[in-house]
Specification:
This protein has about 550 residues and is mostly beta strands. The chain folds into four domains: about 30 residues; about 100 residues, Immunoglobulin-like; about 120 residues, no CATH class; about 240 residues, Porin (Beta Barrel), CATH 2.40.160. The chain contains four helices and 32 strands. The strands form five sheets. The protein has a twelve-stranded antiparallel barrel with strand order 17-18-20-21-22-23-27-28-29-30-31-32. Strands 4-3-7-8-1-2-6-5 form an eight-stranded mixed β-sheet, with no helix packed on it. The termini are far apart.
C-alpha cells in the first residue's frame, strides 16, 4: 500500500482541525482557577486565595513558587503558600494579611502568578484571575415582580456549594430586612431611605448546571417617577459575600404619573381635568323676541387624596404575595358650571371617603395574575347636595397577565440577564370589574322627586375597562359599567360609558407630575343617580401628580 502526498496532506489537515477545536475545548473546562475564601468565626476571620490546577504537584509545597498580586495598583500582596484547611479541596492556598474591606474593593485586579508548579511531566506556570465562589448582584429577573438579589454558584467545589447554601439560608430568614439598608436616589438629588420587603427566594439552575437563586425585593412605597438608582447595603451580620459592599441598580420608575383621562391610581394625590366650552345660540326672550346669546361653561374632573396611601407587602406561600393599600381620605368630583336642566356637561357628582385595597398575586410570572379586592366607605351626593347617601362598597377586579401587558413592561435578555425593553411600542390592559353597594339615602331636598324609591340602597354593577397604548404619544381607553338598582323598581338599570384619546405632553416638577391633552365622549349616569344623564364630547387638559408628602 502506497502513501501519497495527498494522503499526508489530508492527515495533516485533520490533525490541525483536531488541535484547533478539540484540544482547546478540553482545556477550557480544566483551566486553573483561584477563589478568595475565608476561615474562622466572624470576630477572627482570616482570608486566603485557594488555587486549583488540573495536575497534582510533584513534591511538597516547598517546590511551588507563586504570588498574589494586585495588577490594577501594581502591588505584591502575598507569597505565603500553605496547605488548604479542612473541607477545602484546592491544591494550595496563599495567605492574605489584608482587611476584609481592602480585599473586596481590589478583588477585580487580583491575579495569582504561578511561577513554578512541578508535575510528573512538566513544570507549569500560570496567570489566574481571582473570583468569589458565589456571585451576588442586584438585578432584574423574570422570577420576581421587581428586582432581586441574584445569587449564583460559580465554583463547582464543596466550598462553593457550602457558601451558596449559607447565603440562601440567610436571605430566607423571616427578618432579613432588618439587616439591609435601602436607599433610592434620582440624578442630582440626595438619596432617600426606603423600606423594602424580601418576598421569597426562587431557586433554579444556572451555567454549568450549578445552582442559582433569586431573593425577590420590593419597595414598600411606590418608586419615584423617571430614572432612579436603588442601593442595598447589608450590615456585618450578613455573610461576607453580601456585606462586602453596596449593590446598586439603575431603574426607571414603572409608575410614572399618567394623565390618562379616566383611569385613577391610588398612588396619585392629584388628578385634575379641565374643560371649557363656549357656544352661541338663538334664545327666545320673555317678550317673544329672539336674541343671540353666548353660553360659556366649565367642567372640572377632580381626584384629590391629601394623605398619602399606606402600603404594605406580605408573603403568601411560595408562589405569590399580597400587597395592601390604604387611602385614608379622598375626594372624587365630576362637576360642571351652569344650571342643571335637561342636559349637562358632567355627571355632577361628588364622592368622599376612604378605601382599603389588597391585591393577591397568584404567581410571579413575567406578567402576573392578580386578584384585586377593594373595600370602601364613602359619601356620595350631587353637585348641589339635593340628594346625599352613605354606603359600603366592595369591588372585585381580576387582572390576567395574558391581557395585561403595559407598554415598557416587556423583558428582553441581555448578556443572559432579563431587563426591561425600553423600546416597547405597544401596551394592552383589559380589566373586568364587578361590585356591590349597600347603604342609605339620608337626605333628599325635594321628597316628591323621590317618591317610589327606597331610602335603602342595594346596587350591583359590572363591566370593565380597556386601554391601548399605541405609542408613547397616543393612548386609547374605554370604560363601560352597567348598574342594577334594587332601590328603584321604576328604573332598575343604568349604564355609564366613557371613551377617550390621550396625547401625553410630558412630565414636570421633578418627574412627580404629568400632563396631557385629551378628547373624550361620556354618556350615562353614576350614583347617586340624581341628575340628568351626561351625553357630551369633551376636549380638555389633564394634570396628574403624586407623592405630595413623603413618608
Amino acid at each position: 500500500m502506497f502513501v501519497t502526498r495527498i494522503d499526508v496532506a489530508r492527515l495533516f489537515f485533520c490533525l490541525t482541525l483536531l488541535a484547533l477545536f478539540v484540544v482547546p475545548a478540553y482545556g477550557q473546562t480544566d483551566k486553573p482557577e483561584a477563589y478568595l475564601r475565608f476561615e474562622g468565626p466572624p470576630e477572627a476571620r482570616s482570608y486566603y486565595v485557594a488555587v486549583y490546577i488540573k495536575k497534582a504537584p510533584a513534591g511538597g509545597l516547598d517546590q511551588i513558587r507563586a504570588s498574589l498580586r494586585d495588577t490594577a495598583n501594581k502591588k505584591l500582596i502575598s507569597t505565603t503558600i500553605d496547605s488548604p484547611p479542612p473541607r477545602d479541596d484546592s491544591r494550595f492556598i496563599i495567605r492574605v494579611a489584608l482587611t476584609e474591606k481592602d480585599l473586596f474593593e481590589q478583588l477585580a485586579g487580583y491575579r495569582v502568578f504561578v511561577d513554578s508548579y512541578p508535575t510528573a511531566q512538566v513544570v507549569e506556570d500560570h496567570e489566574i484571575s481571582v473570583a468569589l465562589d458565589v456571585k451576588v448582584e442586584l438585578a432584574e429577573t423574570s422570577a420576581c415582580p421587581q428586582d432581586a438579589i441574584h445569587v449564583r454558584q460559580i465554583s463547582n467545589t464543596q466550598y462553593g456549594a457550602a457558601r451558596f447554601s449559607e447565603i440562601v439560608r440567610f436571605l430566607d430568614r423571616a427578618n432579613v430586612e432588618q439587616f439591609i439598608t435601602a436607599t433610592v436616589a434620582k440624578p442630582s438629588q440626595p438619596a432617600e431611605p426606603q423600606q423594602i420587603s424580601v418576598l421569597r427566594t426562587v431557586r433554579g439552575v444556572g451555567e454549568n448546571d450549578l445552582p442559582m437563586a433569586s431573593a425577590c425585593v420590593e419597595l414598600e412605597s411606590a418608586p419615584p417617577a423617571g430614572e432612579y438608582k436603588l442601593k442595598l447595603e447589608f450590615n456585618a451580620s450578613a455573610p461576607p459575600e453580601l456585606h462586602r459592599g453596596a449593590f446598586e441598580i439603575t431603574r426607571k420608575g414603572p409608575d410614572v404619573p399618567s394623565a390618562t383621562a379616566e383611569k385613577r391610581n391610588l398612588q396619585d394625590f392629584l388628578d385634575l381635568g379641565l374643560t371649557l366650552t363656549s357656544s352661541v345660540e338663538d334664545k327666545e326672550q320673555p317678550d317673544n323676541t329672539t336674541k343671540r346669546v353666548r353660553t360659556t361653561r366649565g367642567v372640572t374632573d377632580l381626584f384629590f387624596a391629601p394623605i398619602p396611601s399606606l402600603r404594605t407587602v406580605d408573603t403568601r406561600g411560595a408562589d405569590g404575595g399580597v400587597v395592601q393599600i390604604l387611602t385614608p381620605f379622598y375626594i372624587d368630583a365630576k362637576v360642571s358650571t351652569g344650571k342643571i336642566t335637561k342636559d349637562t356637561l358632567a355627571l355632577n357628582k361628588i364622592d368622599m371617603g376612604f378605601t382599603y385595597e389588597f391585591r393577591h398575586y397568584l404567581n410571579t410570572d413575567e406578567y402576573p395574575d392578580v386578584l384585586r379586592h377593594a373595600l370602601s366607605f364613602k359619601h356620595s351626593s350631587d353637585r348641589d347636595f339635593k340628594q346625599d347617601e352613605f354606603k359600603f362598597a366592595y369591588e372585585f377586579q381580576p387582572s390576567f397577565g395574558a391581557v395585561n401587558q403595559p407598554r415598557g413592561s416587556a423583558l428582553i435578555l441581555e448578556n443572559g440577564q432579563p431587563k426591561r425593553d425600553e423600546n416597547d411600542k405597544f401596551g394592552l390592559e383589559i380589566l373586568p370589574v364587578l361590585g356591590v353597594e349597600i347603604g342609605r339615602t339620608y337626605r333628599v331636598r325635594d321628597p316628591k322627586e323621590f317618591e317610589g324609591t327606597s331610602r335603602n340602597l342595594r346596587r350591583f354593577y359590572f363591566g370593565g375597562s380597556m386601554t391601548f397604548e399605541l405609542t408613547r404619544y397616543i393612548r386609547l381607553s374605554f370604560k363601560d359599567l352597567f348598574y342594577v338598582r334594587g332601590e328603584n323598581p321604576k328604573d332598575r338599570t343604568e349604564n355609564y360609558f366613557v371613551g377617550s384619546v390621550e396625547a401625553p405632553i410630558g412630565m414636570f416638577g421633578g418627574d412627580r407630575a404629568a400632563h396631557a391633552l385629551f378628547f373624550s365622549f361620556e354618556r350615562g349616569e353614576q350614583p347617586p343617580f340624581s341628575n340628568p344623564s351626561a351625553n357630551v364630547l369633551k376636549v380638555g387638559y389633564r394634570i396628574r401628580a403624586r407623592r405630595l408628602i413623603d413618608f
